[in-house]
Write a structure and sequence with these properties.
Blueprint: H1 7-13, H2 17-26, E1 41-53, E2 58-69, E3 73-79, E4 84-92, E5 95-98, E6 100-104, E7 109-118, E8 121-132, E9 139-145, E10 148-154, E11 175-183, E12 187-190, E13 194-199, E14 204-209, E15 222-225, E16 228-229, E17 233-235, E18 238-244, H3 253-270, E19 279-284, E20 291-292, E21 297-301, H4 302-305, H5 314-330, E22 337-339, H6 345-363, H7 369-384, H8 399-404, H9 408-425, H10 427-441, E23 444-446, H11 448-459, H12 463-471, E24 477-486, E25 489-498, E26 514-518, E27 527-531, E28 535-542, E29 560-563, H13 565-578, H14 581-596, H15 602-611, H16 618-635, H17 642-660, H18 670-686, H19 690-705, H20 715-724, H21 728-739, H22 744-753, H23 760-769, H24 777-788, H25 794-803, H26 805-810, H27 814-823, H28 830-842, H29 849-880
Parallel strand pairs: 1-11, 18-19, 19-21, 22-23, 24-29
Antiparallel strand pairs: 1-2, 2-8, 3-7, 4-5, 4-8, 6-7, 9-10, 10-15, 11-14, 12-15, 13-14, 16-18, 17-18, 20-21, 24-25, 25-28, 26-27
Helix pairs in contact: 3-5, 3-6, 5-6, 6-9, 7-9, 7-14, 9-10, 9-12, 10-11, 14-15, 14-16, 16-18, 17-18, 18-20, 19-20, 21-22, 24-27, 27-29, 28-29
This protein binds zinc ion (ZN).
Zinc ion binds next to helix 5 and helix 6.
């Protein structure tokens, strides 16, 4: 992130040199990596008046901040970054005192110094400021769509300081009154409804907003530009609208419905009405994250909010609904009650992630959202198995460290732990605790301990002990489950130890309070036990009735299981009767983890995968293809095993594909449609089956002519395969299709697939395109990650990245730069690892320190796996193709 308070403020500081010096001596010294403000000065209200110039890409503003000063102050320090302070004064009892601004770029603050100390009591600061609209999607930033210019804000974690001078930490909650002067044609949206509009009769107006309730700065929102609103839907007294760039009004119905359904359920869950006066959902044409929970004015990527029900895939629809529910859960959990500091970010994100799946599952049970969650959980387990993981609760000293924590550990591992605790306490006691917590801390801040207290009061159980075991230590356990039979009774002997992907990792001696749930055919209720020590035992009843067992029923626990060989064989034999889809998905993931961690052979995994030729559930097929894709991309080059691997895949899944074919029958269920799409990925993409490749050109030509010519769920797979085998002429077709796309999803589909071309000329063109407006800033990182995943493009991509880093990094917002760095491990060789390490040593990225360590660790782990399994993989493939 660029962090400079402009030179003009520094110059004006030299006027009162003598006085300034005297004050300097009294300014407390704070270590440079500890960027916290003093709590002696607290804001209570901000009045912000802003005048953006959308065409010029600049803005001017004035803010009046009402303060409470606890002790006399020689200077008042507050956040300001990339802003020019044009003037500042302090008003006490009706008289004004001039302030001298002294910027501290490294701390992203400005200290306002005064000739005499500011006395204890109330005061107001008035600051005039100006600045540039930011260019990479943080702070108050500029965006373009169809030749129109816009300004939007994205302020989490610490970018409100690029919008106006403020106390930019979550515990400085205050009320905000916004006003914006702009051209008459522009819409202006903020957190609260418009209170009145002043007409200046010169083509401009000033839009004034009603004062907000208590908010943290990161939850403020301003959107300015030509935006249209949908019709209004009401939930109780809350009006809900969807805002969008002109011409997309016909795509808003689904998001409105999702918002109505979510809000209704959330009000019921929390037992407290929606806390803000209105709810606007804003589709932003260029946006870094998926969405942002600004109070009363939530921002989204267009792909999540603007939907054509005729051509959208079920996966896109589920994701849209899930994100809407996630953001609306934040209105209570995050906005109304906010974490006191960024170390407790997980309190916000884990809860909202869990709640979203709960809400959508209740709305659309047929979508089986918890199966979908299993994929997210798998990603978290994968990340958490590295030595370079972090505990869910992580110490945070500065904004760069806060930014690093927006990852699968905070979101998905956090949500898994919330789910485990709900399971442990029961849903009613859990909800009662959550309600207590929200009521007790509304419009304030809270810490994890406050949540544990409320849950303990509501349930009478010792929650903190169990929860802290998961929140405060990194990693998770591998549960060894070994069946024994004594006197005709089956018992399960259990032991736990931390799981690492690295087989040579040293034992840590860590233990988790582990709620183990074992499923057997013997009884309807699974056997439950909390295993707190290294070892434990569960009795399962008469041996003859326990023909199989599974030691993570419903995949409710955040751990991997390694069953003994006898149990594994029994599960393989009874697979489709014994296990639900989410458990089959779990079994595949556990076995793959066992291979990676050195606890099982690669043959054991491939043997198991072979049994899934008869699988009918798309979630299971998708989970399986994740591991198989890794085998394909990382393990086959060294042994020249690709032809044999493809042959085996084809032999395993071809029949299922032949039974379904390309075209959907009338009245076909979503499950069948999704299975067809999964098989297309497995066979068409991964196995590159000739029968599919031969059909693609005509199918693709038909799709270009008519977007309804293909079952919607196949569109992604079709477009991707067409790109993979495409030449320069097809590349032109892709560009035209992306530019002329009718929906955000269609644009995304064609544009992202530009990264799938294997033709070297096309790869080079795509790389160059990422530096132009053809690829919106929000998508640059995603396309680079996809290029790293393309075997024919990865080396070219790395060369390009090194060569053009200055330009590329300017188009990569902080979260994206982490994802790109993580993707470099696809380069495989130790030589590339050294190159990546050296490059980022020379070009450090403070917000991605951990991502870099993770990428370097993955280089080593993948290399170790190649060395360990190549020989047996080669032999297995020879035998099975
Ligand atoms: Zn969130």
């Amino acid at each position: 992130m660029e962090a400079t308070v402009k030179a003009r403020a520094a110059k004006s500081a030299t006027k009162g040199r003598v006085k300034t010096k005297r004050v300097t001596a009294k300014t407390p010294r704070v270590p440079d990596d500890e960027f916290r403000l003093s709590t002696q000065v607290r804001p209570s209200h901000y009045a912000v008046h802003l005048g953006p110039d959308l065409e010029a890409g600049t803005f001017r503003g004035e803010v009046t901040i009402d303060l409470a000063v606890a002790r006399p102050q020689a200077a008042i320090e507050l956040h300001a970054a990339d802003l020019t302070i044009e003037g500042a004064e302090l008003i006490i009892g009706g008289s004004a005192r001039a302030a001298t601004p002294v910027p501290h770029p490294k701390r992203e603050t400005v200290a306002l110094r005064f000739a005499a100390p500011v006395p204890k009591g109330e005061a107001s600061l008035r600051i005039r400021f100006s600045g540039p609209l930011q260019k990479h999607l943080r702070g108050l930033y500029g965006a373009k769509s169809n030749g129109r210019s816009y300004a939007f804000t994205q302020l989490e974690a610490a970018d409100a300081r690029r919008f106006f001078p403020c106390f930019d930490e979550p515990s400085f909650k205050a009320r905000f009154t916004f006003a914006v002067t702009t051209e008459d044609r522009n819409a202006v949206i903020s957190n609260n409804p418009v209170s009145h509009v002043e007409d200046h009769r010169d083509g401009r107006k000033t839009v004034h907003f009603a004062t907000t309730p208590q908010l943290s700065t990161y939850l403020c929102l301003l959107a300015v530009g030509e935006l249209d609103a949908s019709e209004e839907r009401l939930v109780g007294r809350t009006p809900i609208r969807v805002w969008h760039v002109p011409g997309k009004g016909h795509l808003t119905a689904f998001a409105l419905e999702a918002a109505v359904e979510s809000l209704t359920r959330l009000e019921k869950y929390f037992g407290l009405p929606y806390p803000y006066q209105k709810l606007d959902l804003i589709a932003v044409p260029d946006f870094e994250a998926g969405a942002m929970e600004n109070a009363g004015a939530v921002t989204f990527r267009e792909t999540l909010l603007l939907v054509d029900p005729q051509t959208i895939t079920l996966a896109e629809k589920k994701r849209g609904a899930e994100v809407v529910a996630h953001e609306l859960a934040h209105m209570w959990y995050g906005d109304l009650v906010t974490m006191a500091w960024w170390d407790d970010l997980w309190l916000n994100e884990a809860f909202a992630t869990w709640m979203a799946f709960r809400v959508v599952d209740d709305w659309k049970p047929e979508w089986r959202m918890w199966n979908n969650f299993a994929h997210h959980r798998a990603a978290a387990l994968h990340l958490d198995a590295l030595a370079n993981t972090h505990p869910i609760y992580t110490e945070v000293r500065n904004p760069a460290q806060a930014t690093e924590n927006f990852d699968a550990i905070t979101y998905e591992k956090g949500a898994s732990v919330v789910r485990m605790i709900e399971n442990y306490l029961g849903p009613n006691a859990f909800r009662a605790g959550v309600r207590k917590y929200i009521r007790r801390h509304r419009e304030g801040n809270a810490r994890a301990a406050d949540l544990w207290r409320a849950l303990e009061e509501a349930s009478g159980q010792k929650v903190a002990r169990v929860a802290r075991g998961w929140i405060e230590q990194p990693g998770f356990p591998l549960l060894l489950a070994k069946r024994a039979d004594r006197d005709g009774h089956a018992v399960l002997k259990l032991s736990q130890a931390r799981y690492f992907t690295n087989p040579k990792a040293e034992a840590t001696g860590q233990r988790w309070p582990l709620p183990v749930v074992v499923k057997t055919p013997a009884s309807k209720q699974p056997a439950r036990q909390l295993i707190a020590n290294a070892r434990g035992e569960i009795s399962l009843g008469p041996s003859r009735r326990v023909s199989w067992l599974y030691a993570n029923a419903n995949e409710g626990g955040f751990y991997h299981v390694l069953h003994d060989d006898r149990t594994l064989a029994a599960l393989r034999a009874a697979l489709f009767d014994a296990l639900t889809p989410v458990e089959r998905l779990g079994l595949v993931a556990h076995q793959w983890a066992a291979v990676r961690g050195g606890h099982a052979s690669i043959e054991s995994f491939l043997d198991l995968a072979g049994v899934f030729g008869a699988e009918t559930d798309f979630d299971v097929l998708d989970g399986l293809s994740g591991s198989l894709r890794f085998v394909e991309s990382q393990l086959l080059d060294a042994i020249d095993g690709r032809p044999a691997f493809r042959h085996w895949l084809e032999a395993t899944y071809e029949r299922a594909w032949r039974d379904l074919g390309w075209d959907a029958a009338r009245q076909e269920s979503d499950d069948v449609r999704m299975r067809r799409a999964s098989l297309l990925r497995l066979l068409g993409d991964l196995a590159e089956a000739p029968a599919i490749a031969q059909a693609v050109p005509s199918r693709f030509a038909a799709y270009l002519g008519d977007r309804h010519s293909i079952e919607p769920n196949l569109a992604d797979g079709l477009v991707s395969i067409a790109a993979r085998d495409g030449d320069a002429m097809r590349y032109e077709q892709f560009l035209i299709a992306a530019r002329g796309a009718q929906t955000p999803q269609e644009r995304r589909r064609f544009q992202y697939a530009l990264a799938d071309f294997r033709d070297l000329g096309a790869v080079k063109r795509t790389l160059t395109l990422t530096l132009t407006d053809e690829v919106p800033t929000q998508d640059v990182g995603i396309m680079l990650v996809r290029l790293f995943g393309n075997r024919a493009a990865r080396e070219e991509t790395w060369a390009f990245l090194k060569d053009r880093w200055d330009e590329v990094s300017k188009r990569l917002p902080p979260m994206m730069v982490s994802r790109v760095i993580e993707a470099t491990s696809s380069l495989q060789t130790p030589a590339y690892k050294r190159d990546v390490a050296a490059f980022f040593r020379a070009h450090p990225v403070p917000t991605a320190k951990r991502s870099l360590r993770q990428a370097l660790e993955r280089f080593d782990l993948n290399e170790e796996l190649r060395r360990r399994v190549s020989k047996s993989l080669h032999a297995w493939l020879a035998q099975h193709s």
